[in-house]
Write a structure and sequence with these properties.
about 30% helix
Amino acid sequence: MARIDPTKLNLEEKVVQINRVAKVVKGGRRFSFSAVVVVGDGRGVVGAGLGKAGEVPEAIRKGVEDAKKHLIRVPLVGSTIPHDVLREFGASRVLLRPATAGTGVIAGGSVRAVVEVAGIRDLLSKTMGSTNPVNVVRATLDCLANLQSADDIAGRRGKTAEELLGKRAAVAARQPHIYVERPAPPMLGGGQRGR
């Protein structure tokens, strides 16, 4: 797979977790920080990285640089993913399922961070086993990397997407990613405090 050039993309970054670790030495404790960062353009390109440094901003910067080196492209169908996928990394297992338009992202913190910067707006997910943010992020990226579009699958079988799915479903599977702005939910009780 061809490497994605991060300089041509407008990448958004999101910090998933910052962890302070202590190394005990003769004179006391030495503290350092590790940061898990995800980057994405909101249009199907996403990557994650881990940065370690003595200061938090430096750890985040290193995490962003690492994430830019490991970008992947995710096939999208409208605002969701093409099919179910289950992957594991270490003791973490992540299940991603497509959802109908308007569902929103139903996911925990680590999975949510990855899919939101990837540009997925409707998704159901379940995290099983370990909830270690590093492993959950890696398992989620593995899920997204293993997604395949209808045209890819049909091409490997020597057929067209229309032959596999039918004309209407093949057209729906090729829909470009469209972000629909949803109105804010109405405030109950008039939004005023007091009597």
